[in-house]
């Protein structure tokens, strides 16, 4: 097992170090096209390194902080919801739950995004 690990490290490491160094252009290879191509490669290496660092050290912590904030807001919302009167006792205003015709799904009274925990409709009696 140790032998396999050493062989895989030995093969992967030289390639990584060799690809980072840009060769010096000499002789016929030292022309405008090759100089521009090397400049583009160096710029690409630097900008990809910048975006990798931004992704790892800025985006991931920002996403974690946003998730923590969302969880705290969610908990505060449901904590507040517990102090409200039950759904059946709440006032239903004339502009709420207007039905001109039945929906073609379910019992015809509930909207597509109906949630029994937060929505209630007093039936006309």
Summary of the model, kept short:
The chain is mostly helical and 125 residues long. Helix content is 55%, strand content 0%.
Features:
125 residues, single chain, mainly alpha, 2 helices
Please characterize this protein's 3D structure.
0% of the residues are buried. This protein starts with a helix and ends in a 44-residue tail after the last helix. It has two helices and no strands. Helices cover 55% and strands 0% of the residues. The mean pLDDT is 80. It is mostly helical and 125 residues long.
Computed over alpha carbons, the radius of gyration is 32 Å
Strand content range:
under 5%
In total, the number of strands is 0
Instruction: Briefly note the structural class of the backbone.
Output: mainly alpha
Let me know the largest β-sheet. none
Shape: elongated
Uncertain regions spanning at least 5 consecutive residues: none
Overall average residue pLDDT: 80
Give me the number of helical elements: 2
Specify the helix fraction band. Answer: 55-70%
Q: For the terminal residues, how far apart are their CA atoms?
A: 78 Å
Subunit arrangement of the protein: single chain
Helix/strand order: HH
């Amino acid at each position: 097992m140790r032998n396999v690990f050493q062989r895989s490290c030995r093969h992967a490491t030289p390639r990584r170090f060799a690809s980072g160094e840009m060769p010096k252009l000499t002789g016929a290879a030292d022309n405008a096209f090759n100089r521009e191509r090397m400049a583009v490669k160096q710029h690409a290496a630097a900008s990809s390194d910048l975006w990798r660092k931004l992704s790892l050290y800025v985006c991931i912590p920002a996403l974690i902080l946003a998730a923590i904030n969302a969880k705290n807001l969610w908990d505060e919302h449901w904590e507040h919801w517990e102090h409200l009167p039950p759904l059946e006792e709440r006032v239903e205003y004339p502009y709420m739950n207007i039905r001109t015709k039945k929906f073609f799904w379910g019992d015809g009274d509930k909207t597509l995004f109906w949630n029994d925990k937060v929505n209630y409709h007093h039936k006309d009696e």
